[in-house]
Every structure is written in structure tokens, then in C-alpha cells.
Amino acid sequence: MTEIWSQKHRPTTLKDVIGRDDIVAHFKVGDGFKVFHCLFHSQEAGTGKTTIA
């Protein structure tokens, strides 16, 4: 099955997130900096919510 491009290439760790240092700083926990896909967050449109999710 073919994956959707945005899902295939989305960041899997916070180290993979580019350009949102302010948001990444809020989510850093532990050494692995794993992205937790179950977090709920809200902000204005265009702030990278979907990318971080």
C-alpha cells in the first residue's frame, strides 16, 4: 500500500522538526525526544500543529 507523502515523511522525533524551536522546547522530555502523537494542542492556523502531531 502506498503511504501518504506527509505521513511517510513527517518527523518521528523532535530532532526532525525544523523551524519551530519555540514549540519543540515545550515538548522536550528525556533523551530520545520522542514525538508523542497523542498530545492535544491548539493554536492559530499555520503554526505547525499537524506537522508536530
TrEMBL record:
Q: What is this protein called?
A: Replication factor C small subunit
Q: Which InterPro entries match?
A: P-loop_NTPase
Q: Superkingdom, according to UniProt?
A: Bacteria
